[in-house]
Amino acid sequence: MQINSSCGLCGGVKITHYHQDKLRHYWQCECCQLVFVDESERLTPQQEKVIYDSHQNDLGDEGYRRFLSRVADPILARTSPPAIGLDFGCGPGPLLAHMLTEAGHKMSVYDLYYANDPEVLTGQYDFISCTEVIEHIAQPKSILSQLFSLLKPGAPLVLMTKLVIDKTRFATWHYKNDLTHISFFSRKTFAYVAQIYGSDIEFVGNDVIILTKPEVLVAPSEEIL
After folding, report:
1. Where is the signal peptide (predicted)?
2. What is the pLDDT of residues 128-182, one digit of tens each?
3. 166 and 188 Cβ atoms separated by less than 8 Å
């Protein structure tokens, strides 16, 4: 199979075949190590929306609250209320924003399908959460650049996404079987992102990544623009 896409993170064109299953082919950028699905095998926005609509995000679900606490707890440990936060990609049930509001923060939410308010993407924030979102993005460089531009100096971007370990485990990885998941990050990929933006990076548990914007602003490397 021939690939049609360059890397959606760094723009690299040195792409190698990483894995194939019954559903799709997966490719890896030699520069930033992002694993991704070629545009020819991605769903349409309409097909994605059908899948997202099937998700159950009940604000009263205690199990879902515990799941999101893996993001909420690091945010609360790094911020003092009332901080101004953005939950980017909040989905149809913005429970994380609700949890952080309960803790005294002032929250805005954005979601392409469920809370598409461009006005919130013009503010400046003390923190931004991005939970189970980045793996759905075909062009993560544009989203990361946008999110970093919305952060105040010294503010954290807290992401949650499952991480690629190696080819052997990828072959049996349930996470890749969700057809809306098209960009897969590893620790090396996030280290690349941190280097580009001059940010500190911290991994919390198995799937939470904290990128802290530098206090002294530096221009992102042209490699990712």
Report:
1. none
2. 999 999 999 999 999 999 999 999 999 999 999 999 999 999 999 999 999 999 9
3. no
How many CB atoms within 10 Å of residue 23?
Answer: 12
pTM of the model: 0.93
**Which is nearest to 32 in space by CA: 8, 10, 3, 16?**
10
- Enumerate residues 6+ apart whose C-beta is below 8 A from 193: 9, 32, 144, 199, 201, 211, 224
> Residue 4: CB partners within 8 Å, gap ≥ 6?
38, 39, 40
- Cβ-contact 34, 70 below 8 angstroms: no
Of 101, 185, 173, the C-alpha closest to 143 is 185
Query: What is the Cα–Cα distance from 203 to 12, expressed in whole angstroms?
Result: 25
Q: Which domains does the chain have, with CATH numbers?
A: 44-162+189-224 (3.40.50.150)
